[in-house]
Each structure stands twice: as structure tokens, then as C-alpha cells.
Amino acid sequence: WGDKFNVILANPPFMSPKGGVSTHKKFSVPSNRSEVLFVDYIMNHLRPRGRAGIIVPEGIIFQSATAYKKLRENLVNDGLYAVVSLPSGVFQPYSGVKTSILLFDNELASRNSEMLFVKVENDGFDLGASKRPIKKNDIPQALEIINAWKSGKKLESKLALYVKKDEIIESGDYNLSGDRYRVATDYSNAKWPMVDLGEVCEILDSKRKPITKADRVSGEYPYYGATGILDYVKDYIFDEKLVLIGEDGAKWGVGDKTAFIAKGKYWVNNHAHVLRPDRKKILDELLVEFINSMDLMPYITGVTVPKLNQEKLRSIKIPLPPLEIQEQIVVELDGYQNIISGARQIADNWKPKIDIDPEWEKVKLGDVFKLSSGNGLTQVNIVKGEYPVYGGNGINGHHNEYFLDKPTIVIGRVGAYCGSVHVTEPKCWVTDNGLYAVNFLQEVDIKYLAVALEALNINQFAKTGGQPSISQNTVYELKISLPPLETQKAIIEKIEAERALVESSKKLINIYEQKTKDVLSNLWSE
Prior knowledge:
This protein is an alpha+beta fold. The chain has 14 helices and 25 strands. The chain starts with a helix and ends with a helix.
């Protein structure tokens, strides 16, 4: 990155002779955060009445990494007086990265309790590589707003936003995206115009093409079908961001994920519609959310082979809020999705684990407990009641009677899930599809025992031929590590604390999935 910035500073003083970072920077930052180091350098070397303008990748103004947040904190507290957001592609053909301009003036910043945000959407040229002149140009008005602000005046404009620094500080992440602080329009009761999908999207189905398995040659480019990536091939058809919607072979009920965004270079077969949204009317991300939240069955034709044909696709109706509102919605939904993804990663990947001490005694399960098959009770004979009925894979109903009045261990005996382990509720019934611990021969914490049994993956020892099954004798021969009872309880206490966090993550997923549904459903208000 030193070479990169030699273009701007002939002899960057923030580089040591060996290419490291000199000690005058205010905070620790990884070496790959070159833009952070450069901005930090400029800020730290402004004279008392110094001024500067720095164009930065937009990631600097909102990314959550510690180095970025610390930089923004320093900027807000020392010299930054305005942030100008530029549109993506303004530096084409050299770069398509979205950028912002950070404006510094120590004297001006010190006498203002607010910060100016300016949003430039057009700079007088189209945003492609050709840079053809266009009529729309926000630059003159943006300059007028900034010059007025420097002289202590506020110009009211849709391009300008004035935010108190206290509000930026209160956010905790010192986010410098102006959209973050715009007063959210209450769109919950708005009546947006309903438009056909064909009015806001170009259909590119004529360019898609199937490749049979026999003809596919493996490569680096994704090969998309109705449900997503099916394979990777050596060639590509498309090399732009587009929206794909499953044409057949998928479900179309509410909440089914039939639409997705494809980026980069890729191939699409004839089972997915290819749409290029008119970005002056509809954002790709919001279009995908709309489609995935809809019940598309009214648009499906065919009985034997249900299909979403082009004619029906074009006629799908969606609400069309202004782009400014769409951007707010996308930011909000993206925040929800980040929370959902993080929580789901915890919920999906967590498993209770015992860190085995090699000093612990290893004992056969036959020396720990005695097992017995449960009492036969078919689904037909279950009389609806309050007592859980355990079968080969946990609870499969509730009966009006019980024959066990204390918690115990149940191991699935027959069926695909034989070997599954469950701790029963105090009063329950166990069918003959399960083995249950009749009595215990050693002091053991029942929850510790359950975790140790799960770690054995007892299903791998099932006898095949007909229905898979596990015998008592097979279980008796298996061994577990059995520490003192006090240690067992300490281990379970830790596991239960972790489990509580996992359950909280699951609740978080439900909460934010519902929030997502609520945001989208409000847009359909009539």
C-alpha cells in the first residue's frame, strides 16, 4: 500500500524504512487496512487551521471492524465537518467502488455541534465506463450546500442532512452513512402504486441455455438452476448482477426462497428466469425480498408440471415505493438478516461437548445402568392427554397415562433414528421402540450421561437388514469416560449455560424473521 499512496504523497512519512507503520498513529490497525492508516495520517497531521478532503471507499464510513470504528471516533471528535456520498461508478472505468469524500477543517468542526451529510446521486455523467454526459448533475447544488455550511448557514435540500454529533456518538459505532440518520419515513400505512414486474424489469430469458450433465465441463463459473447453484462450469453467459427466479421445480408458497441475486460471471439454465431490474425504479435486493415473501401460486400454470411462465412472471404485481424509501427498507432488512445469520450460525453449529480428561475412568455402560424395552403403545391407542410418549426418536405424542414417574434416559431401539438419546420428563410413557434406563448402578448425573451417550453416535452400531435396530447388549459393551459426580455436575452447568445462549439465539431468529415479514407486509397496505 506504500506504493499505492506514493501517487498522493511523494515520500509518505507514515512509512518506516522497512515498510512498517510509524508510531505516530493513534491506534493499532492491521497492515491490510491501508485506507484507515492513510486517513488517520492526514487527520493527525492537519495544522490547527488545516483543511483536507479525502476520497475513501465507502466501507470506511460504516464497517464494524474495530479499526474502522476507532478511526471514525477520532474523525467525529477531531476535524471532520462533512461527508459527501458519491454514486457507484463515478470513477469508472478505473473503479466501480462506491466512495465518499471526507472533508476536514479543524476550526470549522470545532465550532459546530452538527455534521453535514451530502448525498450526490448524479455528477453530470452516466455511471458506466463510457462516461457519457447526462442532464442530471447534483455537483453545483452540493458545492452550494457545502460553501453555505462553511459560512455557518444551512441550505434546505433533499441532498443535505444535518446531524448532531451527539447522535452519531450515541450510536456507538460512529456510523458516517448519512442514510443511517435520515428521519425514517413512516411507510407502514402508505399506499404505494402497484406495478407489474414487466414494467420494472427486463426479462433476459432468451440468453439462458441448459447444459446437459454429459456436456458439462467443470470450471470456475457457477451454473444456476431454479433453486440456485447446481454445478460449476468452464464458460459463462452473464457477467453482471441480475435477479434469478425459479421457473419450475420449486415451491411457490409464502416464504419459499425462489428468487436470488447472481453476481460476477455465471451460466443460467432454462429453469430460472433471468431479470435485469431497472435500478431507477426498483432495487435488486428489495425485488428479491418481495418475490420470496409472496404466495406465487396464483401465477402458476400447469398441474402435472407446475410452471411460472414468462407471461405470468411479467404480470406479478409488487408495490413500488420511491427509491429513497426502498434504500431505507433494504438497509433495515439487511441489518435484520445479519442478526439472523449470526444467530443461525450459533444455533446450527453448537453441540454439547465434554472435554475428556485422560485421567478419568472409562467404564462400560453395562456397569452404569440396566436397560429395558418400553411398553407397547401404538398411535391408534394413544388417548390424548398431558403425559409425553417417547418412541425411537423422542416425543411422538401425549397420552392420558404414564408408567414412569422419574426422569430417565431413553435410547431409540428401532428405526432410522435408533441410537438417539433423550432425557425424559418426570412423568411419561416409553414405547417398545425405545430402551430406557430401569436403574443406575453407579452415581451419575443423568444429563452428563445423555451428553456422553450422544457423543458415542450409537446409531453407527445399529444392525441392518429390515429395520435398523440397537440391542441392549450392544449398548452395554460401549464405554464412556466417567469422572466424579461433582465434576459431572460442573460440566453440565457449563453446558446448560451454553444451551441457554443457543436457545436465546433461536428466539432471536424468530423475532427478526417476524420483523422482516412485518416490514414487507406493511408495504402491501391498501
